[in-house]
Amino acid sequence: MADRPRLRRITNRLANEYGRPALRPHRAPVDELVLTVLSQNTNDRNRDVAYFRLRDRFPSWDAVREAPFEEIEDAIRPGGLAPTKSVRIRQILEAIGEDDLLWLERAPLDEARAYLCALPGVGRKTAACVLLFSFGRPDVPVDTHVYRVGGRLGLWSEKTPLVKAHDELSRLVGDDGEFAYEAHVLLIRHGRRTCVARAPNCPECPLRRMCPEGRRRLAHA
Fold first, then answer.
1. In sequence order, what DSSP letters do the residues of 153-174 get, joined into one string?
2. Is this prediction's pTM over 0.85?
3. Whole-number pLDDT of residue 221
4. Which of 135, 187, 209, 215 has the most CB atoms in a 10 Å sphere around its CB?
5. Would you kindly state where each structural domain of the chain is located, as residue ranges?
6. Which residues in the chain belong to E strands, given as ranges?
7. CA of 187: how far to CAs of 16, 128, 145, 147, 160, in Å?
8. CA 104, CA 110: separation in Å to the nearest integer?
9. Is 164 a residue of the active site?
10. Does domain 4-22+140-220 have CATH number 1.10.10.10?
């Protein structure tokens, strides 16, 4: 199993390459929930366009909760999968009612995570986004980039289920929210810029001496 010092060495090298990100919790968990739903199967630009169109169209989340699906769908259309996402967003807002979810900041982490994962269509990644970005809580969202890079680095085995990857990365960061945020952001940056899916740039990778998959590819080349 990987240990915390190794993950720290990884993030330090990535920070030297890409810059060290700064955690700035925004304390708006309902906003984060909706934004994360809109981020599914689209890029950041389309997600943001859909989110701001939704906020411009409706004065509050209460108004979204009471709106017809067709109006929500029209507002978020630039984000893709609007028919599905409009239903999911309203289901979530109906489930939380008038709760602002600020209590999640002080609840036991397991309890906060379990509550979020019980909401319609909310899984570990979405729950981790809400807890980390809203409150700086040490839960690491594992998206496709984080999962791919972590697997190549040996943080988990190749066929590890996504939920287990979340568990493992959260174990590695411990109770350090800053560390959780750095690991999340830096692994994503590395996955987008260097450790891409089909043709990773192993010769110029700052982690090439630490990465089992990188060493294998370089030896094969």
1. HTSS-TT--HHHHHHHHHHHHT
2. yes
3. 75
4. 187
5. 4-22+140-220, 29-135
6. none
7. 13, 15, 7, 9, 17
8. 10
9. no
10. no
